[in-house]
Specification:
A: 441 residues, alpha/beta, FAD/NAD(P)-binding domain, 3 domains, B: TIM Barrel, Alpha-Beta Plaits, 29% helix, globular
Chain lengths: 441, 412
């Protein structure tokens, strides 16, 4: 049995931010490329080279302003963006030695932001219209910020007790401190957006009737999938997204000393690392995908491995072993794909003679999430993913727009934010095209 | 292969190697100098001494550094003064040191006022067993206010007069350390030569105002909110030092101890090429310790071996014939920037530098009509426009890759 070295690892945020002089040193490695490839990698349109240049020449606060203009999630994205797949992927410096630590520099900038509470930009002249934003996650916040900057009134309806969506109620604290995230996202309120917490919004059509000029749907993916195994309702079996929400709220549930996580995505990785930090002595991760096929970010997979967590890739769950009401084990079996490349359970065939058992006090299912709510008149695919015009993010219902995971089916926070921004532009164009005929509120 | 012997003869004195600790804090006491000699330094200039009645009132802090990006200490400013130790004590140490280290060259730096004082201090230093004397006519702060230091070295007449006093009293070779805070050092060095001194030490620190504290508006180093102009040393001043060394050796023809910004053996070779006979080092020793002499001696020896030379003295002044007037530079020779595609990382810094620093002669190969870049693999390779390139060489200075951009002769 592998002894996990980090059984006492803390749930607190890991890593530290650069000190100012360290940031300048790192920034001075930047080659200041002409036509920089890093800029093309940022979904939110952050001018990466320019913000690094600002740090390099000691204009730290200018760097914060520049990033925030494109993306208010300065420190958040500095912590949770998979930069190695985005801006850092094509960093020219890689051809010389190692890429610039863009994530670290942005994290540094984010910390300055909170420390200095930079002044607000000049408010745009207020327009008469008001837009309802359903869901206060990164997509909704992105839309709200851009709308406010254009003078449009915004009301955010957020089901939870804090804005941020997965950022404040899904990502575990060791990746992103929830209080930090909430404070940074609070910028949307400083821009004048009304935020109604613990509010379930009405149907978009209702909101339009009530006087909102347009509606943005950014509800994310609120319904976790379950496998359908016998015993799933036992107290020792958890759904990852619910568990992570509880942890984000401050709960510290006892999962037992041996935990099995089912799933190969980022949420599964987060759940596995959280389980260790909640006191588990051994954590196993079982997933259908092969090691190479696992959808989690490589950096997260490697981090999980470095903590001594054991992977069982290319396997499917067979059953939860229980004694009475108590989970005692997990059984799985190796699979192969009938058709290569189609990574779904129905395409998996058991490999005979490969059944295995793991002792388990707790089982965490992390096999993905789907759309929770559907709205009248808003066209979706069969899974409930909202169909939009890729240019304007308009849905099939006039005046209703959408963005984020509910449209992409699940992607990064920065992409959700970028879609919110794009939808805001679509909404403003829509409002402009209506002229004065529609009723403002 | 010829056997390399690093020893040099300078002003009639044999040095085990050309690397000498300059007059500064590292040579203010015998224990430190001994450690320097043990590390391999060929000589040391004991920190400048004054006579008993000279009051040396130090301030603190007296040093502040200039850093640039991650380059650490690119320059150092000090408002230190001459040694505040008792001259008798130091000279007693000099005698002891000389006994323990007969091979290493011990030079004593000194400063005085009147003829009587200069002659007295010369005799006392000599009696203590110093191999050479170095007279500071060049400290740019503190002393000039009292008519000493660079107040002397900036005036050819005063320099001649005082150098003569010392030479008259001395039986050992005398070096005069000159200040770069003059428009031309040559007339002054000429007077040193006429006075009969053995050589010149060039340069002392460059008078400078290092910077300000942006909150208190005090210059740095801030002595309780105030500061004063000080002496600037370190890698940043090397080009200034090389210029003065070359000027003096070429046009005055007097031996020069070169000093100013030496960190690596490559720097020291440059001083030898400019005509210096020995090389003094201070800031780099303070920054990195006495041990760097190992890199200086070993690096120099290996370089000489590569060049088929057996002594550093063979290098002295080899670069001088190549320093000519601007007027006599070739106008027939035309260079053009040439970029090695295999080495290029595609950053385009050369493009920016040429666009905004010169002649708009470089562009990405994949640049399209609409201003965007094509998806081709070689889209980020910069190309030089033969028509527009004037061969200025600026692109080569900004390229992050060694030897990627070279200036080659035009073929047309």
């Amino acid at each position: 049995m592998t002894n996990t070295s980090t059984a006492h690892a803390s749930l607190e945020e890991t890593g530290r931010s650069y000190a100012p002089h360290e940031a300048v040193i790192e920034a001075s490695r930047c080659l200041m490329c002409d036509d920089p490839p890093c800029n093309a990698g940022c979904p939110a349109g952050v001018d990466v080279r320019r913000f690094i240049r600002k740090i390099r020449f000691g204009n730290h606060r200018g760097a914060v302003r520049l990033i925030r203009e494109a993306n208010i999630m300065v420190g958040i994205c500095g912590r949770v963006c998979p930069q190695e797949m985005l801006c850092m992927e094509h960093c020219t410096r890689t051809n010389l030695d190692t890429p610039i630590d863009i994530a670290g520099l942005q994290r540094f900038a984010g910390d300055i932001e909170l420390a200095s509470l930079a002044p607000l930009p000049d408010a745009a002249k207020d327009r008469p219209e008001r837009v309802a934003v359903i869901g206060g996650g990164p997509a909704g916040v992105g839309a709200a910020v851009e709308l406010r900057k254009r003078g449009v009134g915004v009301t955010i309806f957020e089901k939870s007790d804090v804005v941020g969506g997965v950022l404040t109620r899904g990502i575990p604290p060791f990746r992103l401190d929830q209080a930090f995230a909430a404070e940074e996202l609070n910028y949307v309120e400083r821009l004048g957006a009304d935020v109604e917490l613990e509010q379930t919004a009405s149907e978009p059509a209702e909101l339009l009737k009530k006087g909102f000029s347009a509606v943005f749907i950014g509800i994310g993916l609120g319904r976790p999938y379950t496998i359908g195994l016998e015993g799933e309702d036992l107290p020792g079996v958890h759904v990852a997204s619910d568990l992570l929400t509880d942890i984000a709220r401050g709960d510290r549930p006892d999962l037992g000393s041996r935990v099995v996580v089912i799933g190969g995505g980022n949420v599964a990785m987060d759940a596995a690392m959280a389980a260790l930090r909640l006191g588990a002595e051994r954590v196993d991760v079982c997933c259908l995908e092969s090691y190479e096929e696992m959808p989690a970010f490589r950096s997260e997979i490697e981090e999980v491995q470095s903590e001594g967590i054991v992977f069982h890739p290319g396997t499917r769950p067979v059953r939860i072993v229980a004694e009475g009401n108590k989970v005692v084990g997990y059984e799985g079996v190796a699979i192969r794909w009938k058709e290569p490349g189609l990574l779904v359970p129905s395409n998996a065939v058991d490999v005979p003679g490969t059944k295995f058992s793991l002792a388990a006090d707790g089982i965490i299912e992390a096999i993905g999430t789907g759309v929770l709510d559907r709205f009248e008149g808003v066209e979706t695919d069969e899974r409930g993913v909202v169909r939009t015009d890729p240019e304007t993010m308009a849905t099939s219902l006039p005046g209703v727009f959408a963005g984020g995971d509910v449209v992409s089916g699940g992607a990064t926070a920065v992409r959700a934010y970028a879609e919110g921004k794009k939808a805001a532009e679509g909404i403003v164009a829509f409002l402009d095209s209506r002229g004065t005929e529609g009723g403002g509120r | 292969m010829k056997k390399v012997d690093l020893s040099v003869e300078f002003c009639g004195i044999r040095f085990p190697n050309p690397f000498v600790l300059a007059a500064a804090p590292p040579t203010d006491d015998a224990e430190m100098i001994a450690r320097g000699f043990d590390a391999g330094w060929g000589g040391a200039v004991v920190k400048t001494l004054g006579l008993e009645h000279v009051e040396v009132n130090l301030v603190s802090p007296m040093m502040a550094g200039l850093s640039y990006e991650d380059k650490g200490l690119i320059g150092l400013e000090n408002i230190d003064l001459i040694s505040d130790r008792d001259i008798n004590e130091v000279l007693a140490e000099v005698s002891e040191l000389k006994k323990s280290y007969p091979e290493q060259v011990l030079i004593v730096s000194m400063m005085a006022g009147s003829e009587k004082e200069w002659k007295e201090i010369t005799r006392r230093v000599q009696a203590a067993g110093a191999d050479m004397i170095e007279c500071s006519f060049s400290c740019p702060h503190g002393m000039p206010e009292k008519g000493m230091g660079s107040a002397v070295g900036q005036d050819a007449g005063l320099t001649y007069e005082r150098a003569k006093w010392v030479v008259e009293a001395a039986e050992i070779p005398v070096l005069i350390k000159l200040t770069p805070n003059v428009t031309d050092m040559r007339p002054i060095a000429q007077k040193v030569k006429e006075a009969g001194a053995a050589g010149v030490t060039a340069i002392n620190t460059v008078k400078a105002l290092l910077g300000f504290d942006l909150d208190t508006f005090s210059p740095v180093p801030s002595v309780n909110g105030k500061s004063t102009e000080g002496g600037f040393s370190g890698p940043a001043i090397k080009p200034i030092a090389l210029r003065f060394v070359a000027d003096v050796v070429k046009d005055v023809g007097i031996p020069v101890a070169g000093v100013g910004g030496v960190v690596t053996w490559q720097d020291s070779v440059e001083f030898l090429l400019a005509g210096a006979g020995i090389v003094e080092v201070c800031t780099a020793v303070m920054r990195y310790g006495f041990d760097i002499v190992e890199e200086l001696t070993e690096g120099l020896a290996l370089y000489l071996e590569d060049k088929g030379m057996s002594s550093p003295m063979e290098l002295i002044g080899l670069g001088l014939p190549n320093i000519v007037s601007h007027e006599s530079l070739s106008r027939e020779y035309k260079a053009i920037a040439s970029i090695d595609e295999d080495l290029c990382v595609g950053c385009g810094q050369c493009i920016v530098a040429c666009r905004d620093g010169g002649h708009q002669a470089i562009g990405f190969r994949g640049r399209q009509e609409d201003g965007g870049l094509s998806d081709a693999d070689d889209a980020r390779i910069p190309e030089v426009d033969d028509e527009k390139c004037i061969g200025c060489g600026f692109c080569r200075t900004v390229c992050p890759v060694e030897a990627c951009i070279s200036m080659t002769p035009r073929e047309d």
